[in-house]
Amino acid sequence: MNYQYLDNLMQELVDKGLPCCSLHIAQHGKLLYDEYFGYADAQATKPLSAASIFRMASMSKLPLYTTLMILYEQGRLVLSDPISRYFPEWKTMKKAEKQADGSVAIVPAERPITVKDVMSMACGLPYCMPGMTGGNATQQSMAKCMEPLWARGHYTLREEIKAISGAVLAFEPGTHWMYGFSSELAAGIIEAVCDKPANDVFCDLLFQPLGMDNTRPYFFGDIKERMVALYAQQEDGSCVPTATTMDDKHNPGIEFEAGNPRLFSTGRDYTRLMQMLACGGELDGVRVMGRKTIDLMRSNTLCAQQLVDFRDDYNAGYGYGYGVRTLMDKAAGNNNGSIGSFGWTGGFGTWCEADPEDGVSIVYMHNLFPGRDDTLHGRIRAAAYGIVK
Questions:
Q1: Is residue 66 part of a domain?
Q2: How many domains does the chain have?
Q3: Do 90 and 144 share a domain, yes or no?
Q4: Measured CA distances, 126 to 88, 245, 321 (Å)
């Protein structure tokens, strides 16, 4: 099959200002397309290659939630468990409740947060970062809880979870969808169940069995030199070099610890994860998890109200499963993939999807701030599915 139109699309992105990008399409364990465009470092005219390392940002969540599903499959956790089983200080919570006069009252939550609430982003805690101003009652309370740890400058995931236990939930657990601190709780559950750092569990259950040798949380060897440069897109469309404090989290040492792990990876490494998920939990003769567990992972968990919370133009046609978006309506999202295809997006522009119906995985990479997701990922998705047999 002639893949020239894919080359043309990717080259167009670079010609119009994107410093670099790569696309990796695989089916039934074989790479169909694996190409690299532009410069890993435009200033040094260093071409992008298979060795180039990308910041995964929120695409770190795929290994996180896949690991949780493996632990579920092993009977080591129950989705209906209250998270206070792992974090005793979370036994009782308070929530913000809007009153008839428009004011907000702080009242006790009616039920505890469960593991399922965490995995479906329904616990009622958004993200809260140092330096954020304003925000709703929940973000203000989270910031107040975190101030001592932020002042210290470094903290463990367990310390962060304990601190946030004093925050006010944005809603009754399980009633709405809200992206955010659920992932920190998810990583904490892994640590509590396995009695070791979540990053080590990722390696044990995913990275080592799948041969993902370039996917890790901390710099080692020549990884730092192989990481693509980060660029910021200006209003005129041009891109200039920039930096992110998130890179500090990749430096080894306690002084750089700051809660939930962040991963880096290559396009080929990440494709091995997505191919395993697309191929029923097995890749190259190595079984990582069961097909039925993946089916559960990609099942929509959201009720009608939560779908309203979740969906926007970017997520049109998708619902949300256990840590992943999942396709429910092809026509609503103008999507030529399969119902039940699932994946996620990273804050610096990375995007992925696994399609178990056809054994297909798609991994797209660039590192730009803002990520420039808008319609770009939809174009990539449409073009990638065009080569599926």
A1: no
A2: 2
A3: yes
A4: 21, 20, 18
Domain residue limits at 139: 72-194
Domain identity same for 224 and 368: yes
CB-based contacts of 59, cutoff 8 Å, min separation 6: 263, 265, 270, 344, 345, 346, 350, 351, 352
Share of the chain above pLDDT 90, in %: 85
Residues 342 and 278 in one domain: yes
∠ CA 300-305-308, rounded to 5°: 80
What is the rounded (10 degree) CA torsion for 77, 78, 84, 87?
20
Q: What gap in Å lies between CA 64 and CA 49, rounded to an integer?
A: 26
Q: Are 54 and 23 in contact (CB under 8 A)?
A: no
Model confidence pLDDT, tens digit, residues 16-56: 989 999 999 999 999 999 999 999 998 989 999 999 999 99
The domain spanning residue 321 has which CATH number? 3.40.710.10
The phi, psi pair for 105, rounded to 5°, reads -105, 145
For the whole model, what pTM was predicted?
0.96
- The runs of H, that is alpha helices, within 42-136 are 61-73, 115-119
Buried b (16+ CB within 10 A) or exposed e, 180-198: bbbbbbbbbbbbbbbeebb
3 state SS of 146: helix
Q: Cα dihedral angle (338, 380, 249, 262), rounded to 10 degrees? A: 10
